User: Which sequence fits this backbone?
């Protein structure tokens, strides 16, 4: 007979495998800060976003063409609303990053780790596990140490914009997990509608913010186009597809904590490629982010694996199961299962 630890091992492996794509999303999002800073100025945020999203939509449309045809009006409307929220996140975060320090931006955006479980707990009227709160607190402390290099300062307009992006990230994750109209909808189709709706938001704002997208595209070098394709394919298409699947399969709190390692990876890329240096407290902060994330991942268990239905036990000939139960006769298969449990 298998012991409890042996039975729990496959579930733990499934949880780890399910979490790895989300951690990879945190890695590519962490790298996106450096990519955006090399590609964007305050005057080119919106046209860059237009080009970034338009580069994704045609190939994704080919992959999602069949499931897109099955979407009903309620599903189109729900996915489009999520896309509008997503567009707001990108606008606030992109403008915030170019108008504030990476220190403040990294710390403020990580507040999603706390905002999401608090909001989820309030909506579902359930208590947050203490172990999860402790893990999230350790991760936040780690982010604070990790980003202390240039010190904190009075919040600026850029800081408030990034804070707005953190709030919208929480709204987006919760709306995605609680939308009844979108349950069971193909993930590729849902991703395409969201990205298309966000592109509409950027296109509407484009005439009022910076040069036309095609003029910006014409001025870019091959290296800049390479950065754009990286942002489009990995930091946009891959990242939001994985996030959406994860939110629909597990809790938003767990997703937010795993994605909370983003500032750590931003620091890693900054050191490796951007010439940044970390102090001893910052290195300690990076370790706390990793330990806090792993502790939180274990505190919020993965959803149980789907149970395959057992073969139905043949009923007495000529008598329907409902008739047996209505007459007070126990279901033979249920009785057998009860004896086996004893």
Assistant:
């Amino acid at each position: 007979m298998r012991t409890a630890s042996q039975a729990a091992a496959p579930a733990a492996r499934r949880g780890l495998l399910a979490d790895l794509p989300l951690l990879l999303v945190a890695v590519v999002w962490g790298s996106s800060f450096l990519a955006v800073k090399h590609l964007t100025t305050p005057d080119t945020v919106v046209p860059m976003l237009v080009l970034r999203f338009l580069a994704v939509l045609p190939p994704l449309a080919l992959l999602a063409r069949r499931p897109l045809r099955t979407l009903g009006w309620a599903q189109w409307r729900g996915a489009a609303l999520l896309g509008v929220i997503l567009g707001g996140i990108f606008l606030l975060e992109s403008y915030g990053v170019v108008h504030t320090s990476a220190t403040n931006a990294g710390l403020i955006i990580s507040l999603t780790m706390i905002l999401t479980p608090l909001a989820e707990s309030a909506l579902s009227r359930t208590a947050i596990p203490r172990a999860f709160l402790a893990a999230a607190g350790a991760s936040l402390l780690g982010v604070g140490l990790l980003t202390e290099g240039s010190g904190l300062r009075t919040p600026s307009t850029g800081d408030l914009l990034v804070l707005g992006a953190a709030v919208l990230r929480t709204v987006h994750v919760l709306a995605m997990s609680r939308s009844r109209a979108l349950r069971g909808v193909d993930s590729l189709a849902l991703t395409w509608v969201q990205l298309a709706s966000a592109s509409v938001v950027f296109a509407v704002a484009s005439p009022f913010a910076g040069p036309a997208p095609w003029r910006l595209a014409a001025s870019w070098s091959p290296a800049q186009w390479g950065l754009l394709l990286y942002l489009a394919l990995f930091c946009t298409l891959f990242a939001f597809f994985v996030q959406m699947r994860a939110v629909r399969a597990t809790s938003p709190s767990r997703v937010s904590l795993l994605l909370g390692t983003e500032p750590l990876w931003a620091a890693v890329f900054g050191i490796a490629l951007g010439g940044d240096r970390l102090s001893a407290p910052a290195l300690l902060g990076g370790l706390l982010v990793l330990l806090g994330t792993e502790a939180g991942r274990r505190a919020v268990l993965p959803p149980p694996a789907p149970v395959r239905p057992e073969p139905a036990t043949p009923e007495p000939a000529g008598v329907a199961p409902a008739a047996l139960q209505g007459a007070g006769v126990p279901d033979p298969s249920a009785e057998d299962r009860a004896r086996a449990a004893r």
About this structure: Residues 11-299 form one domain.
